[in-house]
Write a structure and sequence with these properties.
The complex is a heterodimer of chains A (446) and B (469). Helix content of chain A is 37%, strand content 16%. Chain A has a single domain (1-446), classed as Amidase signature (AS) domain (Amidase signature (AS) enzymes, Alpha-Beta Complex), CATH 3.90.1300. The mean pLDDT of chain A is 96. Chain A starts with a helix and ends with a helix. In chain A, the strands form 2 sheets. An 11-stranded mixed β-sheet of chain A has the order 1-3-2-6-8-7-12-13-11-9-10, sandwiched between helices. In chain A, strands 4-5 form a two-stranded antiparallel ribbon. Chain A has 446 residues and is an alpha/beta fold. Chain B is of the alpha+beta class. Chain B folds into 3 domains: 7-284, no CATH class; 293-404, no CATH class; 411-468, Arc Repressor Mutant, subunit A (Orthogonal Bundle). Chain B contains 15 helices and 16 strands. In chain B, the strands form 4 sheets. In chain B, strands 2-6-7-10-1-11-12-13-14 form a 9-stranded mixed β-sheet, with helices on one face. In chain B, β12, α3 and β13 form a beta-alpha-beta unit. Chain B starts with 6 loop residues before the first strand and ends with a helix. The relative contact order of chain B is 0.09. Classes of the chains: A alpha/beta (446), B alpha+beta (469). The A-B interface holds A 49-50, 56, 58, 63, 66, 68-70, 72, 170-175, 177-179, 205-209, 286-287, 289-290, 293-296, 298-300, 311-312, 315, 335, 338-340, 343, 347, 351 and B 41, 44-53, 80, 82, 84-86, 89-92, 143, 263, 265-273.
Chain lengths: 446, 469
């Protein structure tokens, strides 16, 4: 059986049981090459990332049937390096969630590869679940706004790396919070993850926020000696709200780094610990509420008969019927926070604190190569537990991941041990464009 | 703000910059008019598309800002202005909000008054809505995105204008500046919103939206001033409102009052990076700025030409250019009169713009014609016909023309024609002698005919008068 066919069969089989893929690509794609750095790898792509001619919905029913006329820069690069794109993965609609349970209307919730009663994490849940479950060589194109790469990677026991903001072009990515969105790789191990990062990084003239910074050969940093590297554990990330057994696993990982000669100290990041979550949600929702405005049933996506209806009535119906509850919640909160009269108190203030949070981190990187903490405060929760959570408790899950996301700092999660049979992730955060250090330190934890 | 004038007017003017490509994508701004033929994922607002700034637009807008004596900001920041409307591809418009590119400018009117420029900012044009049939009669609308994303400049003035006439002069001067800077397509439609209030109401302001076309602006302002004055006279209490101008009906109607003012929920556009506007960039533009109409007018006046000629010529960039080339070789007064009358007349006759002339070819020919006229080699009529022929065909052989049409300087020949005419036109001659002075022109014409148009009209007249005494 050919590699393509084998991959397709396996994907279908896994999907029947776990619902990781919204769309399976069973036709050859334009621009796919057979040779390159990714030849032999299958690649899954988060549904929010455009792949030309393949249905791309961002996990929302409002885009059902939408086939992009463009390839995202990352999908183009993957195809040109021989990666075989096998499908678009399940996610919280538009990335709005941390468990991949906020899927679009009519879409299936992906199940944790270790326990089908539990969530994959989110919002790139399908990417992480599929990467964990497939037996083939596989990497995944995920995306993070406030933790959507490392959270599901941690819950599903794979490696996830969220790069520096601007490292990877966002061209072709459906926007959630444009100043926060980052496309990044997931893999079964650090080497695969680093390889995909190498392929997708670099300047892109089609995307204004993409940085013109030289791309390192990330995969060559796998296994490099970490002796003498200085790492600080973030005190606040081991305290209240963090499961003790999870913290214990992370502490063991820290010990492992120590044994390999890394120098470990402790730092405090009071500002980000106190305000990170609030600042993140205000900015992300403000931006999201403008980004989702374009989905109104006129040029693409879901449409219906508009006879006899005015524009306002028509688009309100389309949006009411096709956006899920969490999308509506974020549009409303985001619109509120940028309204005249509230804008200064929320949006403008949040933007100012964000700058201060970045400085708080930057100060640490004058002394340290990386910061370390648990990726998630808990192991993957059961669906029954999630159902009981309030929206606020839901948002609290991002407490450890929003910081580096707000500051645009690269971070990686490495599976380090298990609690109750479920994987635990250790997170390392590095300075801007220092992804190579994450690869180096991350591989030392494998 | 404390107002004192009877009428207070402020304008917000939208002009389309004539760059080749759109503000945030590579689509052409001009070309095929086939609906939705000049579009891409960016200007259609497709998922995943991202805007990339067209730097040429920044250059053009900076030019305009400098010409309007504005302060240019150190950085360029774009915001999203959110509102739902079918002509907006993303249901937000990328525009500038807190930090406009240009601010605190001014423009002087001919009465010496200074009109303050609050700000000039850059933004994208929405798509065009096409109502099959008429706007009121059709039950659906079509959207043409060809215009979506075209670069616009919005110019906001202080409420410094005290009459629709001042507003018209402001607009005239603005258009002249735009033409001099060559950043604007003269065929493009100018749109404006106007704030109008009158003393009688205690300056309760109405904002008139969607005034399309240069002439409509003055018309809408006149209407609005009269409407407000009449309303106060009728005992109505005005309230601040936003109104829409209906050009078909020639009247404005209320859209909303201030209480329901739109809230656009502005945020900084996170897809665009903040661009530094360096001193070097601004200096470079400043150094390459053309001389503008007002400066030219002053300079032309110094040449000793009539003030109105200086004004008319300087207002037309292309006419000014021809004048400047000719005045190097020919008397300024003569050139100014020729440019304003002969050249404009010839251009109108041939339905050409002065801008269309191939100056390298035609200017030396104009010089020859004018020199021949001044020296008396050819008469004024022959000179005008020469000018006209050159305008019509730049390859026109002007030397041969002058040679063929030399004035008959020989007085005796003309005198012969004069005598012939006097003997032929006995009736008219006696009319003239009886005091009917205008008959003289007819007699001049008769002599001119005999000279086959080559004689000098002044000379004929002189000889006729002498012989008829």
């Amino acid at each position: 059986m050919s590699h393509e066919k084998e991959a397709l069969e396996e994907a279908k089989k896994i999907n029947e049981e776990y619902h990781y893929l919204n769309t399976i690509t069973d036709k050859p794609l334009e621009g796919h090459m057979h040779q390159g750095k990714l030849s032999g790898y299958t690649v899954s792509v988060k549904d929010a990332i455009c792949v030309k001619d393949v249905e791309t919905t961002g996990g929302s029913a409002i885009l059902d049937g939408y086939k992009p006329v463009i390839d995202s820069t990352v999908s183009k690069k993957v195809k040109s390096q021989g990666g075989l794109i096998i499908g678009k993965t399940a996610q919280d609609a538009f990335g709005f969630g941390g468990f991949s349970v906020n899927v679009g209307i009519g879409k299936k919730i992906p199940l944790n590869p270790f326990d089908k009663e539990r969530a994959c994490g989110g919002s790139s849940g399908g990417c992480a679940g599929f990467t964990a479950k497939t037996n083939l060589k596989h990497v995944s194109l995920a995306e993070s706004t406030g933790g959507s790469i490392v959270c599901p990677a941690s819950f599903c026991g794979v490696v996830g790396l969220c790069p520096t903001y601007g490292r990877v072009s966002r061209y072709g990515l459906l926007d959630y919070g444009n100043s926060l969105d980052k496309i990044g790789p997931m893999g079964k191990n650090v080497k695969d993850t680093a390889l995909l990062l190498e392929v997708i990084s670099g300047f892109d003239s089609k995307e204004s926020t993409c940085a013109d910074v030289e791309v390192d050969e990330y995969s060559s940093f796998v296994g490099k000696d970490v002796k003498g590297m200085k790492i600080a554990l973030i005190k606040e990330c081991f305290g209240k709200g963090v499961n003790e057994k999870v913290a214990e696993q992370v502490n063991q990982a820290i010990e492992k780094l120590k044994e390999k000669g890394a120098v470990i100290e402790e730092v405090s990041l009071p500002l980000v610990s106190e305000y990170g979550l609030a600042v993140y949600y205000i900015l992300a929702m403000c931006e999201a509420s403008t980004n989702l405005a374009k989905y109104c049933g006129i040029r693409y996506g879901k449409m219906k008969d508009c006879t006899g209806k005015g524009f306002n009535e028509y688009f309100s119906e389309i949006r009411s019927e096709n956006l899920n509850e969490e999308s509506k919640r974020r549009i409303m909160i985001g619109t509120f926070a940028r309204m005249a009269g509230f804008r200064d108190a929320y949006y403008i203030k949040a933007a100012k604190i964000r700058t201060k949070i970045i400085s708080e981190y930057k100060e640490q990187f004058e002394k340290y190569d990386a910061l370390i903490c648990p990726t998630m405060p808990v192991i993957a929760p059961k669906f029954s537990e999630i159902e009981k959570m309030t929206p606020l408790e839901n948002y609290m899950m991002d407490i450890l991941t929003v910081g580096p996301n707000l500051a645009g700092l690269p971070h990686i999660t490495i599976p380090t041990g298990k609690v109750d049979g479920m994987p635990v992730g250790t997170m390392l955060i590095a300075d801007h464009f220092e992804e190579k250090k994450l690869v180096q330190l991350g591989s030392a934890l494998e | 703000m404390k107002f004192t004038t009877d009428i207070v007017i402020g304008l917000e003017i939208h002009i389309e910059l004539n760059t080749n490509t759109k503000l945030f994508c590579g689509c052409a701004t001009k070309g095929s008019d086939e609906p939705n033929s000049r579009v891409c994922p960016v200007c259609l607002g497709h998922p995943g598309s991202k805007p990339v700034l067209n730097k040429k637009v920044v250059e053009f807008a900076t030019k305009l800002g400098l010409a309007m004596n504005c302060k240019i900001d150190k950085e360029l920041v774009f915001s999203r202005k959110s509102y739902f409307y079918p002509d907006l591809a993303k249901n937000y418009q990328i525009t500038q909000y807190e930090q406009p590119l240009c601010k605190n400018g001014s423009m002087k009117l001919s009465n010496g008054k200074t009109i303050g420029i609050t700000r000039i900012h850059v933004e994208e044009d929405p798509a065009a809505l096409v109502h099959p049939g008429s706007i009121h009669g059709s039950n659906y609308v079509l959207i043409d995105y060809n215009r979506s994303g075209n670069p616009l400049c919005e110019i906001v003035t202080e409420p410094d204008m005290a009459s629709p006439e001042e507003a018209r002069e402001f607009m005239n001067k603005l258009i002249t500046i735009l033409e001099y800077l060559e950043i604007f397509d003269p065929d493009a439609i100018i749109k404006a919103d106007a704030n109008v209030s009158v003393k009688e109401s205690g300056y309760i302001r109405s904002e008139i939206k969607n005034i399309t076309g240069f002439k409509e602006i003055e018309r809408a302002l006149n209407y609005e001033v009269q409407r407000q004055k009449r309303a106060v006279a009728d005992g109505e209490k005005l309230i601040q409102d936003t109104r829409s101008w209906d050009a078909e009906k020639g009247m404005s109607s209320r859209l909303r009052t201030k209480e329901t003012e739109d809230d656009y929920g502005y945020i900084i556009d996170p897809d665009l990076v903040i661009t530094d506007i360096t001193d070097e960039f601004v200096k470079n533009i400043k150094d390459n700025m053309p001389e503008l109409a007002d400066e030219k007018m002053e300079k032309f006046k110094e040449h000793g030409i009539a003030d109105d000629n200086a004004e008319i010529i300087s207002k037309n960039k292309d006419l000014a250019k021809v004048y400047e080339l000719l005045v190097k070789e020919i008397d300024a007064d003569k050139v100014s009169k020729w440019a304003r009358r002969d050249l404009m007349k010839a251009a109108n006759y041939h339905k050409k713009n002065v801008a269309d002339l191939d100056l390298e070819k035609v200017v030396p020919k104009f010089v020859s014609v004018l020199k021949a006229e001044i020296s008396g080699e050819i008469n004024a009529k022959i000179a005008f016909m020469g000018t006209s022929s050159i305008v019509e065909d730049p390859e026109f052989d002007v030397d041969k023309y002058i040679g063929d049409n030399k004035s008959q300087g020989d007085d005796s020949a003309i005198e012969g024609f004069v005598k012939e005419v006097i003997s032929e036109q006995k009736e008219n001659v006696s009319k003239y002698k009886a005091g009917e002075g205008k008959v003289l022109n007819f007699l001049v014409g008769q002599v001119m005919r005999k000279s086959q148009g080559k004689a000098d009209a002044g000379k004929i007249k002189e000889l006729l008068i002498k012989c008829l005494q």
